[in-house]
Amino acid sequence: MSKKALIVIDIQNDYFENGAIELVKPVEASLKARKVIDFFRENNLPIAHIQHLSADPSMPIFVPGTFGSEIHENVKPLEGEKVIQKYYPNSFKETDLLNFLKANEVTEVVVTGMMTHMCVDSTTRAAKDFGFDCTVIGDACASRDLEINGKTVKAEDAHNAFLSALTFFYAKVQNSDEFLTA
């Protein structure tokens, strides 16, 4: 029988209005993530809250000790829930996330968070490479407009492109309602 754990990636204040790197619709995504968090809490399933911190003091995002680096109030961890600090997009790199999942005998991870095109993508791919079955809750993730070769890729397009790429091999992608009623 599979055991699920939830990974809540970088839902931090710097991604919200007036933050250092505002995303598109972060509030909406955080509220969907909260619904999934509540489900995991109600079912006593493991939750890992990931908090990105800047290792470079010249970077204006996720500066340790600032309001921007704090986990957003919509998804605040409860006392006793696992909080993992990281310095790279991949939530497994140089953290104890893998050990936490193994210690809890997890076989399937459910992923929510920010940014779809960076940390959600890299963490999901790493989780699959470590042998976990993966589900990404698409409406509980957020992205932002990206630029390449002088062209803007709208946040919704970037978000959908990365989610669609994950569905090819790495993850099942569902919205929060689909996941919660399955």
Question: Which labels suit this protein?
Answer:
182 residues, two-stranded antiparallel ribbon, alpha/beta
Short description:
The chain is an alpha/beta fold and 182 residues long. It has 5 helices and 8 strands; from the N terminus they run βαββαβαβββαβα.
Helix content: 25-40%
Largest sheet: 6 strands, parallel
Give the integer mean of the pLDDT values: 97
Residues in β-strands, percent: 15-25%
- Secondary structural class: alpha/beta
Distance between the termini: 16 Å
The SSE string, one letter per element, is EHEEHEHEEEHEH
Query: Total strand count, please?
Result: 8
General form: globular
User: Order of strands across the widest beta sheet?
Assistant: 3-2-1-4-5-8
| Uncertain residue segments | none
Characterize the quaternary organization of these chains: single chain
Count of discrete alpha- or pi-helical segments spanning 4 or more residues: 5
Instruction: Using the CA coordinates, give the radius of gyration.
Output: 15 Å
Report what the structure shows.
The chain is α/β, with parallel strands linked by helices and 182 residues long. 32% of the residues lie in helices and 24% in strands. It contains five helices and eight strands, in the order βαββαβαβββαβα. The protein has a six-stranded parallel sheet. The longest helix has 17 residues, at 26-42. The model has no long low-confidence stretch (mean pLDDT 97).
List the helices and strands and how they pair.
Elements: E1 4-9, H1 26-42, E2 47-52, E3 82-86, H2 97-103, E4 108-114, H3 116-129, E5 133-142, E6 146-148, E7 151-153, H4 155-169, E8 172-174, H5 176-181
Parallel strand pairs: 1-2, 1-4, 2-3, 4-5, 5-8
Antiparallel strand pairs: 6-7
